[in-house]
Amino acid sequence: MNQPWVYIVLIGLIIIVYAKIMPRTNGSKELQGPTIGEIEETMEHFAAELEEQNEALIRQLAETTREYDAQSAKLASKIDMLEKQSVHTGQEIARLSLANEELQKKLERITEWQQSVLQNAAAFPQPSGEAAAAVEEPQASHGMNIKKRYSELFSMYDQGKSSDYIAKKMGMNKGEVSLIIQLAKQEEQLNVQK
């Protein structure tokens, strides 16, 4: 009741009620007639102004509602997107944790295997002197075995033939030829380091 138009309406209603209650006389009718007409006119003018204000408020409320609905829709779409990302992230975390557990298990198995190999190796006596030289000698000659075993392949390779050409001539895959050449190079490097 802090708005002035409420007071104006109340005052107008009081005046109308008072005018109806007052006894009517012929002389007073002429006085009251224009006064009631003025009051009615004022009330109509006041009602029209109230109606305009109400329409303005309704328009403003409708605009505010539209803006609120648009913001709500934006926020709802963002929430949906974040929920989907959260679910996807949760799935990725679960997948990564499973992969991590599998890797840990594999690492534990490898560690156990290494320990068992070391324990088994410790159980056997180590060769000494001539026996150790006899064990190392076949390993050194093993590198020569690759070149000897594939002497035709290495003769073509030394002549500068391509891996494709060698593979066709030898009836092998190109990958096999490349692998044999790489193994021979690694063995030569190991023999040079010794």
**How many domains, in number, for the residues?**
2
Percent of residues in beta strands: under 5%
Record field, number of beta strands: 0
Percentage of helical residues?
over 70%
> What class do helices, strands and sheet pairing give?
mainly alpha
Give, in order, the helices and strands.
HHHHHH
Low-confidence stretches: 137-143
Mind summarizing the main beta sheet? none
* Alpha-carbon Rg, integer: 52 Å
Q: Give the overall form.
A: rod-shaped
- Oligomeric organization of the protein chains: single chain
The end-to-end distance, rounded to whole angstroms, is: 105 Å
Q: What's the rounded overall pLDDT mean?
A: 80
Walk me through the topology.
Blueprint: H1 4-21, H2 26-123, H3 130-149, H4 151-158, H5 163-170, H6 174-193
Helix pairs in contact: 1-2, 3-4, 3-6, 5-6
Transmembrane segments: 6-22
Keywords: Coiled coil, Membrane, Transmembrane, Transmembrane helix
Coiled coil: 36-116
Short recap of the structure:
The protein is 89% helix and 0% strand. The protein is built from 6 helices and no strands.
Describe the structure.
The protein has 194 residues and is mainly α. The protein has two domains: 77 residues; 61 residues. The protein is 89% helix and 0% strand. It contains six helices and no strands. Helix 3 packs across helix 4. The longest helix is centred in the middle third of the chain and has 98 residues. The chain starts with a helix and ends with a helix.
